[in-house]
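Help! Submission page says 'invalid entity' but I think these are all valid:
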Amino acid sequence: MAEMTKTADASGERGDEDLLSPVPDDDGAPFWRYAARGELRVQACADCGELRFPPRPCCPHCHSFADTWHLTNGRGRIWSYVVPHPPLLPAYAALAPYDVVLVELDEAPRIRLAGNLVSGPDAPLGSVPPGRIRIGARVQAVFAEVNGVTVPRWVLERT
Amino acid sequence: MPGIKDATAVVGIGQTAFAKQLPESEKTLACRAILAALDDAGIAPAEVDALASYTMEETDEVEVAKAVGLGDLTFFSKVGFGGGGSCATVAHLAAAVATGQATVGVAWRSRKRGSGPRPWRNTAVQLPTPAQWTRPFGLLRPADEIGMLARRYMHEYGATRDHLFNVALACRNRANQNPAAMMYDRPLTREMYMTARWISEPLCLFDNCLETDGALACVIVSAERARDCRQRPVYVHSAAQGLPAQHHGMVNYWNDDPLTGPAWTAARHLWKHADLTPEDVDVAQIYDAFTPLIPLSLEGYGFCGRGEGAAFTEGGALEIGGRLPLNTGGGGLSEAYVHGFNLINEGVKQLRGTSTAQVPGAATCLVTAGEGVPTSALLLRN
């Protein structure tokens, strides 16, 4: 709780506290619970082992309803990115231009997580100059708290 | 098995004015467009027994039917996925008429997107499931979601902003010939495009469609009935919807090939049931909420190979006289953005020979709905 307050205060004047929080559905809730522990996990079939994202009730390959949550190494590569400019929701307009990256996971390249490339775990959106972002760049997951919810963010492996 | 090939025809089209702001309600605009389409066809409202529209349409069947005085309805359907549903409204009516479920169908779309709210601004209502995976990170708008695919497409295949400009320019040039288009008196230059403000890099202002108030409708009857109508029939030669396996909507990021979208699925069905090939298409109306949807759709519908869609736009290929004249009323980019319905009506105009940018002797027209979401397409002929 203290950690969360600190993050919110540090970024308060840039409007981070008004960023949208994830609204998990039943299938997605475990992802966010693990993220709160600093773990990047993706859903896996408990029978055939196939990783799947977004989470869903059953395995599209073997149709099993049994699942586990696979702990990833948190590493990946930038598959693509955009740099949004206004008009945006106010909290995001205040941070624009910022980047949104799609990261393909080392362990399952066809799982590409949307997130933000930042200069460090507590750095705000837009803290990496867009000109430094490259498709193919290696990135590592870090975790930040926004409104008491832990979300993954991404930092470059080599800066 | 008898299919729907040439079994039905579009015999009436109608539209309101297109503007950033119209004073009348969506319901009123819907009624005006529908009555105009029926008048164009020479068919009385009381003869209508089928309706089709989009799930995002706010005016429902009860409101429409009682306002314009339709008859007893025996078929009505609504298609999901926003602009992906445009052609499917006609396809559903064609199937209904061809199988005897109805005799006179009306498809319509009325929308005050110009003066009304932008859907992505709504944070009170949680968007469908993918929102939790994208929106907290500031991937907020369709332009951001498609921009992600566009950047990757440019990276993989060497597409450039000039290719996207080719798309924007072709649509704008056609709008400059169309007095009903919102951009009728607004020419576009390369300098304007290259210096325009960003919306979501790599997409600039001119890569994005307009925001429009307006409504359109069309009337579908059997080919037999069509011969007695007021206008030259435009036959529905082939029609398809497309939702590929493991597709994720506009955030199609979680499968083996995100750049192969619903257009490929719809195209396979469309051509399989047609007597025509892409080489036989005289003019195309391709859904253009964003310029990158054009190269992707050109590939999906088989006008060129994987990765060749951007190069296809070179040398004036999309202009009148080019390989494939595109969006001849100006499209969503420069005529009006009414979830792609204006592309359907423009396809009909081309095959009647009454477009403001007429392709000489046009006999076949491809019309598509939005690529990047579960989509649909029509192959029209005269």
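Support: the input was valid. A stray whitespace character was the problem, and the output above is from the cleaned input. The interface with chain A takes residues 118, 121, 123, 126, 129-141, 143-144, 147-149, 151-152, 155, 197-203, 246, 248, 251, 253-256, 258 of chain B (CB under 8 Å).
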